[in-house]
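User: What would this chain look like folded?
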Amino acid sequence: MTDASLALLADIGGTNARFALADTASATPLQLDTVQGFAVADFPSLADAAQHYLQAIGHVGDARIRCGVFAVAGRVDGDEARITNHPWVISRRRTRERLGLDDVELVNDFAAQAMAIPLLQPGDYTAIGGVQWAVPERADTPCTYAVIGPGTGLGVGALVVRDGRYYPLETEGGHVSFPPGTPEETRILERLSAQFGRVSNERLICGPGLVNIHHALCEIAGVDPGPLQPSDVTTRAQAGDPLCARAVDIFCAVFGAIAGDLVLTLGAWDGVFLTGGLVPKMLESIRHSGFRQRFEHKGRFSPNMGRVPSLAVLHPHAGLLGAAAIAVRRAAP
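Assistant: Here's the prediction, encoded as structure tokens.
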């Protein structure tokens, strides 16, 4: 690595902050052996977490890190980004000064997830349903992809490819209103509306959302579940608890319906990529659920949806991979 090619990367969610280095002059820019993760609750700011990371990895030869690309789970508004599910407020200028960098780019985390798509290798994703991804043979083939993923919250983005250039779309699509698709989902919505007022897709499709679904089912059944974590719901579902199993089934079906709606909204006929922290953990549940049925079940457009691939991303650091791609683009002359 040289001074000109070295970049600091971060993928900041509501629970974890992951850091890595990128060599923008390399064909594989993300340096996987430099990846480290920390709990965001352990640090007062992004700059503090980044300084801790840099101290942990030590020096990198004689090269100096000159730029940073930080993907954050929240809206980037000019010089500032706010983490939706954590109190951090990130200033581009103050972070650059604290870390001694020449340049810092703040991007939405799902813009980074979208930019990872061209760098994914065959082992980095798997199809949900029978439709495989036809990887374009030419870089200038026009494509539109949707990206959606549940973690601490629900991230939504897209990648538009035109004339060999990649345009990630930064959205807050996880916060659109939840549309129930069955009478049971309507009853769940009624319970969540009483608790939250307006109910967004993120109130159901994320880690806390799985708990919300389960709690609503328990209310309907007249059962007090007590306090649970998302992992409690999935573990009990696997052990045969009927309400937990039903919560997982509804989660996966609603996830499929929302992913299909996103394809229709964006015209993302080339595929939707399912990413986020919960997808690998719930992969088998998603595979054997109503995800794909609800994904395709779009009335007159059902035949069109039946040809759209839905792909679960298995790469453990897709956000950092996309941040590396952004760093490469920024370094290009």
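DSSP finds twelve helices and 14 strands in the chain. If you want, I can go into more detail on any region.
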